[in-house]
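Holo model, zinc ion. Inputs:
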Amino acid sequence: MTDDKRVMKEITPRGEDYSQWYLDVVLKADLADYGPVKGCMVIKPYGYAIWEHMQADMDRRIKETGHVNAYFPLFIPKSFLEKEREHVEGFSPECAWVTIGGGEELPEPLAIRPTSEAMICSMYAKWVNSWRDLPILINQWCNIVRWEKVTRPFLRTTEFLWQEGHTLHETAEEAEAETLKMLQVYKSFCEELIAMPVVAGRKSDSEKFAGAQRTYAIEALMGDGKALQAGTSHNLGQNFAKAYGIEFLGRNQERLLPWSTSWGSTTRLVGGLIMTHGDDSGLILPPRVAPYQVVIVPIPPRKGDVNEVVLPKCREVLAALRAADVRAHLDDRDTQLPGWKYSDWEMRGVPLRMEIGPKDIEKDQCVLVRRDTREKVFTPLAGAGARIRELLDGIQDGLLERARKHMADNTTHVKSWDEFKQVMADKRGFIVAGWCREADCEAKIKEETKATTRVIPIDREPIAGACIRCGKPSPGEVLFAQAY
Ligand SMILES: [Zn+2]
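Output:
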């Protein structure tokens, strides 16, 4: 028992200091560690396994919607980045530059990619000649560097991993349809895989991607009432085609500019997952991304050796679970007591714990404990695989349900500017309110409440009214929140 308490104490309660709680979970659950360069994290095997499950599922969705993967270079010549004016203005403050190579000053500085529009569009200019070459639907998985001042593991890091899709289309309508299709892919991914509900919508001009015509995003609500942008999809119009000289011969033999899109999702999603589901005991992992869905903890006999009956039985169960396609792990460390192992795996968010002791073996049963509800279930060892798959589905659904309820409980439709300020000061969360669409007014709202416009939701009918702050006409309600 004393061991249990020691482990529990190591995580700061969320109510005391949410941001410290987050760091405790990341470090104590062994997801990541700080690297020697500020803002660059090491993703440890347990954290990386979560990312791999996310990556595999996202990759499948990207391919199912007709895209193919490719890889483009890490270094972008300065002159390439400068071709699109808004784009370079938006990104140069965060660029890292290489100026020396092989001991010699380079003739032209090279940016370490902060995003790959400049690189990929330059190549598309070489590849596209006719309308028959369109559409181009390419995705790349890679690392990105953006020099951040304030960093936090997974949520905002100087180097991060992501996928970036870059597409070219013959018509404006096709490009807009693509932008919205990928936004929907991100939304389904978040809800179906990581059980994180999101609101999809369009960004205001001040929040859109540098060089884009329109930016769409999905926004999730974290445990502390702050929003997290969890994926973005940009309609780039013809801006990049023009800047990078991409042209094609149209069906009527005229030279035309194609329409382009880009869209990305990053390792930030791991941070979103932690803050959507975690509790004061640590991480809670949705079964679909959990590196281990079940951990078996052997209970040694009071007299005699654990190796005689208990461990062999545990190994047999482990093999049966793996054969039933359950990601199972046997914690056979002989240096720790079962109680210590319970809290350890609880902290690491394993969806189900299976306890097997001598008495259980006599009755041919085991004890299953759910991480999300802590409910205990006695289950016959025969057919445990099927029962566990059922429980895992229940946990996955339950987590999404719980997160949806949290979002609904923390979304407030406010009627006055005073109420807006009150809600943002007390409980935060999402605020739904009218906005005049003027950047000045948006900036003042941010100044006074730290809340920004997150998205103009696209999956509901716009309700016209008045701007919550200045009273001018608002064409439709907007989602506000303080954001990560
Ligand atoms: Zn206003």
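Residues 1-8 have pLDDT under 50 and may be disordered. The radius of gyration is 25 Å.
Archived with the compound record.
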